[in-house]
Amino acid sequence: QVQLVESGGGLVQHGGSLRLSCAASGIIFSRYTMGWYRQAPGKQRDVVAIITNTGNTDYADSVKGRFSISRDNAKNTVYLQMNNLKPEDTAVYYCQGGRLAGLNTVSYWGQGTQVTVSS
To answer: What is the rounded CA–CA span in Å between residue 72 and residue 101?
Structure first.
């Protein structure tokens, strides 16, 4: 059974920092591209950051320079370090893992963790 379990969300003041973690089980973690997405109330779910199985990273323009994604394959965990948080970063943050399987894409999601940034 595949599980992605996020942790580390919470309430933080404008300008503060949080570190999200996502622990994966049931998959060969090192083969997966991992990503963080977020969804604010009434809005669609958007990508925040991704890290490939080879360690390449990419970020949404809105978080470049403030957020950093990393992974520890030995711990089957992906992290999102969020600095200089802004109220507009308030959302539910989801962890996602995906890989190509032939012509298909295999994708798994966590249950989400709430991040609230007060002004």
So the answer is: 23
Alpha-carbon distance 36 to 47, whole Å? 6
Which DSSP category does 12 fall into?
A: E
Distance CA 107, CA 50 (A): 13
- Provide the token pair at 83: 């600095």
Q: Could you give the CA distance from residue 48 to residue 112 in angstroms, rounded to a whole number? A: 13
Three-class SS of 60-86: CHHHCCCEEEEEECCCCEEEEEECCCC
Rg (CA), the chain: 14
Model confidence pLDDT, tens digit, residues 24-82: 999 999 999 999 999 999 999 999 999 999 999 999 999 999 999 999 999 999 999 99
The rounded distance, in Å, linking the Cα atoms of 35 and 63 is 14
